[in-house]
Structure to design on (764 residues):
């Protein structure tokens, strides 16, 4: 993975010193609350319901075991011995003291990490495919360009105070695990007919209050122009994006207002002035960064592992876990393993200091000392030998990290919600837990098969409910917490936005409603059909019928407005 | 006379800024964020306000709208070096550039930050310095604070009228917040990979 050179290190060290001074000035009364707010936000520090929350960047989800140990150490030293992996491949601490944050940042800097631009109206952490570099369907490893984008966007002087937050995702595989259609800029790496590297440029996608799929404004942009082209997109947005209404300030609103074609034209017009200028990427820089992502020293192994097959045949629990948690790898004899952070009773994405230490050891022992964080809030060991799977399973199980539910109903994507977040309308963690408890029968869970259930506590959609096959959104009705359910969303190349099934429900009703949706699916599905396929084939109606029955509830809701 | 930061020192300054009277707009907030009311391209002042603006005979920065509307009257002062123009954040550098054959006839151009979080002025500065080739003094006015000076300097500002209630000596330190930069900007037209990281360059 990428390692800092003296320049990268100087920048994060300078940042620690800068933030230490800003904190000091705030505490001394030299900076007002309003003046300090954007400064602390651009360093990932939020004021939450009970305390400060610090979001630390995990660029494109890649971590070394050394870094994970430090994250665990930080949770122990400055927090309550746990932290939360977010839906944007970051990690969040819920209880640091403001006075200690500069020291915390210095600890992070010691392992080449930071909290720069993890919040605020600026370019946020670049996200990508959690299986980058190992996925069999990969066309181009996106990590090199992700790292180049990370550096370019770090303290970009022109784009530090945008109308609103700005998220860039990069995908390099057939399947789009980076959800590029749902980002302010999505870059889909492709090769042209001549075999040259470039990208499809997508702008204006996003979740939130107004979910919109992005629009392609350029079918093929040669890689050398990635930074100048992004500069032009950002410049058009920075100048013309709305600043009079925070809810209409994302780039998607500008793209929608102008039309993608006109927006693209304005980008091209600006770009004509800087194209081929000094910010054009060089082969030397591409090669320099790419060298850090060279494949590790894989052993030459057989694709088949007879000992593994024997274990799979004799141990059903192990086979179930392998069936859910293990993915194919481009190198024979290796697989990628997802460790579930979705154990029932634990808030999705939460991880204790002890578990972090433990996973760091697993990474050292089984996966070249590296791991990944997925936007589904799980941890991934990307380079595990098939022959090691059984040993890994036993160890992971002992630490509560081997729940065989990856991609199943209880592998819930969930924001911190009203328990922590001051923006939330409703709690989300207890909803996730209630659903996990309702569906605790593993056989049933496996029979239901692949399904994504996403929960957001408010319109800001941190839990990606719009692209959940079942999406749950917390809404506020007369000061009470209610939940709106929608179905049919999907991420990936065939991304779609979910549709609301009808009036909302109380927290206590949600597990019943999910159960009714599932049983509708189970009775209506055709051979081999996944939940999403059935919804797409049949539409909303049978599911509405299954949930609302004779529509008494729907009618009642209408009467009460 | 007011003190400003010019490049990296504090100097006294004899320019005054002529402004239209502002109606007191309350600060509005949405989702916990302060929002600005003016969209890019909005009108800056009524014709009456433009006509009524008093412009003193000493060195004066006039609003873009006044310069455009009263060019005939003001043009002579460009020659004497006693006139500069300031652009507000919702106005465009292009408009100013189109108003004069050579922007370098202005000894001073200022760009306003109505609030420090209004980032449009960074793009206006970048464009004045790059696309429109302005080489004279470029001043940040308005909500100009220590923690933004480094960014302002990078996009081409070389003078800074720090907000009057702030300690200008403290603010000066903001120009030195970072010792390394990655990306191209006005103060450093080469990205880091064309300066340090090429094959053979010492890393």
């Amino acid at each position: 993975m990428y390692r800092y050179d003296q320049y990268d290190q100087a920048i994060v060290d300078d940042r620690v010193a800068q933030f230490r001074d800003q904190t000091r000035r705030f505490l001394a009364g030299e900076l007002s609350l309003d003046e300090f707010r954007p400064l602390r936000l651009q360093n990932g520090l939020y004021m939450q319901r009970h305390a400060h929350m610090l979001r630390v960047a995990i660029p494109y989800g890649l971590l070394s075991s050394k870094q994970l140990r430090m994250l665990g150490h930080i949770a122990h030293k400055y927090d309550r011995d746990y932290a939360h992996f977010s839906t944007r491949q970051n990690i969040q601490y819920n209880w640091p003291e403001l006075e200690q944050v500069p020291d915390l940042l210095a600890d992070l800097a010691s392992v080449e990490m930071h909290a720069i631009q993890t919040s605020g109206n600026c370019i946020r952490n670049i996200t990508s495919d959690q299986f980058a570099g190992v996925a069999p369907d990969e066309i181009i490893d996106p990590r090199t360009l992700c790292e180049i984008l990370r550096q370019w966007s770090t303290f970009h002087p022109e784009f530090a105070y945008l109308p609103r937050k700005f998220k860039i995702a990069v995908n390099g595989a057939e399947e789009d695990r980076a959800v590029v259609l749902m980002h302010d800029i999505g870059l889909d790496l492709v090769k042209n007919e001549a075999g040259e590297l470039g990208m499809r440029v997508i702008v204006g996608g996003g979740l939130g209050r107004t979910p919109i799929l992005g629009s392609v404004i350029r079918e093929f942009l040669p890689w050398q122009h990635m930074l100048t082209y992004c500069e032009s997109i950002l410049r058009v947005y920075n100048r013309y994006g709305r600043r009079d209404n925070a809810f209409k300030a994302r780039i998607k609103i500008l793209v929608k207002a102008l039309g993608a074609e006109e927006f693209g034209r304005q980008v091209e017009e600006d770009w004509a002035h800087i194209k081929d200028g000094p910010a054009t990427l060089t082969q030397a820089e591409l090669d320099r960064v790419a060298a850090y992502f060279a494949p590790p020293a894989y052993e030459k192994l057989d694709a088949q592992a007879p000992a593994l097959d024997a274990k799979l045949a004799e141990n059903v629990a192990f086979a179930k876990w392998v069936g859910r948690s293990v993915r194919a790898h481009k190198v024979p004899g290796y697989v990628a393993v997802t460790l579930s952070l979705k154990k029932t009773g634990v808030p999705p994405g939460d991880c204790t200091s002890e578990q972090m230490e433990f996973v760091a050891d697993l990474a050292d022992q089984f996966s070249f000392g590296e791991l990944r964080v997925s936007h589904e809030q799980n941890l991934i060991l990307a380079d595990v030998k098939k022959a090691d799977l059984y040993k890994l399973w036993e160890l992971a199980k002992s630490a509560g990290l081997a729940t065989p539910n990856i991609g199943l109903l209880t592998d819930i994507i969930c924001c911190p919600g009203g328990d922590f977040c001051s923006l939330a309308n409703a709690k989300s963690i207890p909803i996730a837990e209630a659903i996990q408890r309702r569906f605790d029968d593993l056989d049933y869970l496996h029979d239901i098969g692949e399904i994504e259930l996403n929960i957001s506590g408010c319109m800001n959609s941190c839990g990606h409910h719009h692209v959940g096959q079942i999406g749950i959104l917390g809404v506020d009705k007369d000061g009470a917490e209610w939940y709106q359910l929608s179905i049919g969303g999907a991420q990936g190349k065939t991304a779609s936005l979910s549709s609301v099934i009808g009036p909302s429900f109380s927290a206590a009703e949600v597990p019943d409603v999910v159960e009714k949706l599932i049983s509708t699916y189970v009775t209506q599905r055709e051979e081999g059909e996944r939940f999403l396929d059935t919804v797409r084939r049949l539409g909303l109606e049978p599911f509405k019928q299954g949930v609302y029955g004779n529509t008494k509830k729907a009618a009642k809701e209408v009467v009460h407005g | 006379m007011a003190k400003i930061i010019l490049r990296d020192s504090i100097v006294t300054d004899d320019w005054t800024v002529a402004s239209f009277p502002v109606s007191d707009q309350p600060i509005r907030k949405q989702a916990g964020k302060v929002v600005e009311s003016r969209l890019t391209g909005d009108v800056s002042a009524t014709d009456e306000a433009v006509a009524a603006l008093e412009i003193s005979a000493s060195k004066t920065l006039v609003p873009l709208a006044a310069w455009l509307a009263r060019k005939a009257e003001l043009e002579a002062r460009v020659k004497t070096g006693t006139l500069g123009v300031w652009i507000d954040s919702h106005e465009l550098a292009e408009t100013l550039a189109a108003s004069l054959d050579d922007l370098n006839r202005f000894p001073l151009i200022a760009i306003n930050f109505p609030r420090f979080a209004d980032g449009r002025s960074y793009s206006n500065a970048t464009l004045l310095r790059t696309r429109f080739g302005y080489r004279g003094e470029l001043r940040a006015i308005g909500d100009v604070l220590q923690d933004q000076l480094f960014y302002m300097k990078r996009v081409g500002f070389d003078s800074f009228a720090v907000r009057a209630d702030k300690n200008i000596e403290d603010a000066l330190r903001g120009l030195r917040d970072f010792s390394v930069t990655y990306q191209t900007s006005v103060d450093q037209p080469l990205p880091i990979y064309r300066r340090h990281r090429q094959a053979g360059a010492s890393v």
Summary: Chain A is about 40% helix and 15% strand. The two ends of chain A are 55 Å apart (CA to CA). The first helix of chain A runs from residue 6 to 27.
